[in-house]
Amino acid sequence: MTKTIALKNSWTIGFALILSLLVIYIIQVGGLAKDKYLLRVYEKELVSLSRDNKFLDIDFSKMNSLSHIDQVLAKNSGFVKTNNVKYIKIAESSIVSRLR
Prior knowledge:
Helix content is 81%, strand content 0%. It is built from 3 helices and no strands. It has helices spanning 2-63, 66-76, 92-99. It starts with a helix and ends with a helix.
């Protein structure tokens, strides 16, 4: 009778061990599938952000151009673009005589 109980206990322990290993395997496979899905999502997001970064670099270089600065100053600051510039002419002899 002790052999029967021992055999029954070994079968129960073996079945419990196999069942617990199966549950651990299912949990690990589920975690792997979740991680793979998240990796795919993050790779797509990285590609999208890289593309947006290229467009932002192009826009940034356009914003720093002198023609754009003229437009921004005229629009936001109230500056007016001049068309006709008149310079004051100073006779060279008057400047030289004052320096001596």
